[in-house]
Amino acid sequence: MSISISPSDRVFVLTGAGISAESGLPTFRASDGLWAGYKVEEICTPEALRRNPALVWDFYSRRRADCARAAPNPAHIALAQLEAQLPGRFFLCTQNVDDLHERAGSHHLVHMHGELAKSRCEHECGRLPVEDHAVYASLDQVPHCACGGRMRPHIVFFGEIPFEMRRIEREISESTLMLVVGTSGSVYPAANFVHWARQAGARTVYIGPEPPLNASAFTHIVEGKAGQVLPGLFTLA
Ligand code: APR
Questions:
Q1: Which domain holds residue 230?
Q2: Which of ligand 1's atoms lies nearest the C-alpha of 97?
């Protein structure tokens, strides 16, 4: 299978945990979905942060450590190369909080669910998120903001609104080709992007080892691992 990209195409890419699977970072739903006996959906919530901030920080500290050990795989690199070949006509939206796209050379991207390598004040005090790669061994190591609030991971928890939605909606409405890579299609609003793209008249292609929950909305499904399928998938006309 080859996907042809013409000079008039504008490409919107959505990636999920599956694109980082071959870098050794586990997906959310492929395993038993448990961490330290908790469901991930029970840890990544504003309520969990209030009730048990030590647990939430432990979870994200370990994910920071895992991410620091991981390296971009051929799928991340293929997308960075595609961006370089399509100046001004390529937009990448990732649900992932790792920085493997950036480390592969992607520039034009948004992290709609936040970034592992940043923290922000738990209160909405107006101060911007700060870069933070620290792996905290305990809650008392987690720094506080100038306003007194404890820092929290700069992550969109379940029930919170994803970042950059206006820009994402605009980019989808202008795109003619949507590529969705390695996401189960179970978390909204990202699972709806394919429907928005179809409404805008775009071709929609899913790449992953199994069809996602929203498979019926795609014009093509390319079954396979992202790192094996993406390099060499595109033909630029
Ligand atoms: N290449 C491509 N896809 C893969 C690969 C691979 N090598 N390995 C697994 N996958 C696919 C799986 O088939 C599955 O459909 O990746 C998908 C991972 O799905 P999820 O674990 O549900 O991850 P994702 O869809 O990114 O989750 C969405 O949920 O927990 C929240 O905020 C979190 O961003 C996350 C969101």
A1: 1-24+71-113+161-237
A2: 34
